[in-house]
Amino acid sequence: MAFIHGKSAIVLHNEFDLSSFFNDASTSRSIETAETTAFGNSAKTYIVGLQDGTISLSGMFDGAANAIDAEMTDIIGSNDGGILTIAVGGSLALSQRVISALGELTSYEVSAPVGDVVAANAEFQVDGGVGNAISLHALSAETATGSGSSHDNSASSANGGVAQIHVTANTMNNNTVFKVQHSADNSTWADLATFTTVATTVKTAERVTVASGTTVNRYLRSTWTASGTGSVTFHINFARR
Amino acid sequence: MATYKVLTGLDYGKPSKRVEAGELVSDLPPAAVKWLLEQNLIELSSGKSAPAPVSEGDDE
After folding, report:
1. Which residues of chain B make contact with A191, given a CB cutoff of 8 A?
2. What is the pLDDT of residues A92-112, one digit of tens each?
3. DSSP string of A136-202?
4. Is ipTM beyond 0.90?
């Protein structure tokens, strides 16, 4: 086991890497419990219910385009919320554990103290649960069709999951298709989640849900099919359910 | 040789071959046929003889 310093944490929000604006990222998860205590019990008993979660991000205000203030105010009141990936370990490399979530912005606060930097704080209600995701592609550029190395989960799972992508830079002069594939043998690969085709130079983020009850095989990888030339910078992760 | 209808896009073989849903294939790796059938990612194409999806030597 190795402890991790928080100084290099990464925060991706939709199509932006907002890490340089934040200096604190906190995730909270909770699970409802329903009491099942009956006559004859000597101690209270419970069963677990629905999961829930919240995310808090705080840092420094920047009013420039594509900076923290513009991106937070963009999603105020939006049901689409913000697609969030948080790498507390400071790495989005293959197989790194990351937090993935759809966050509905519940508050955004800017404070300007006379003796300190102007601060910004955003609170998110997680919509659909906090994902324990695995990175399948670091936030790095690709220039041609390819596939990532595989991640070995050691076993399959049987309850679907959520695939998430952040495309933070894109100079491709034609469409790019991104997918998550799975395999039982690390050799033959089947499409598991296909993201909406990313058009020329478009930067975007998306979550694709794999239905509960779907088998997700032991091995996972990302693939990308570029129809044009240029460069596209993206990160993909997948959270099993 | 059994022919299968692909129900989900697949990549297999070396060099890698890509097939899309709806295509018919007869060159799937034998070791993959079993799990692809079990997960309804492929189906035996109608009118073809039954395949032997279990790969050699993996029965216990």
Report:
1. 8-10
2. 999 999 999 999 999 999 999
3. EEEEEEE-SSEEPPPEE-SS-BSS-EEEEEEEEEE--SS-EEEEEEEESSSSSEEEEEEPPPBPTT-
4. no
DSSP chain B: ---EEESS-EEETTTTEEE-TT-EES---HHHHHHHHHTTSEEEPTTS-----SPTT---
Whole-number Å distance between alpha carbons of B44 and A136: 32
Distance from CA of B33 to the nearest CA of A (A): 9
| Contact by Cβ (8 Å): A134, A219 | no
Cβ neighbours around B24 below 10 Å, total: 12
Enter the tokens of residue A238: 């997948």
Name every residue in B having a CB less than 8 A away from some CB of A: 8-12, 28-29, 31-32, 35-36, 39, 41
Residues with Cβ within 8 Å of A64's Cβ and at least 6 positions away in sequence, in order, are A70
CA–CA distance, A169 with A228 (Å, rounded to integer): 15
pTM, entire model: 0.92
What would the pLDDT profile of A212-230 be if each residue is shown by its tens digit? 999 999 999 999 999 999 9
Please give the pLDDT value at position B58. 46
Kindly calculate the radius of gyration of chain B based on its CA atoms and give it in whole angstroms.
11
Say whether A74 sits in a helix, a strand or coil: helix
Which tokens sit at A228? Answer: 């044009």
A194 chain-B contacts, CB cut-off 8 A = 9
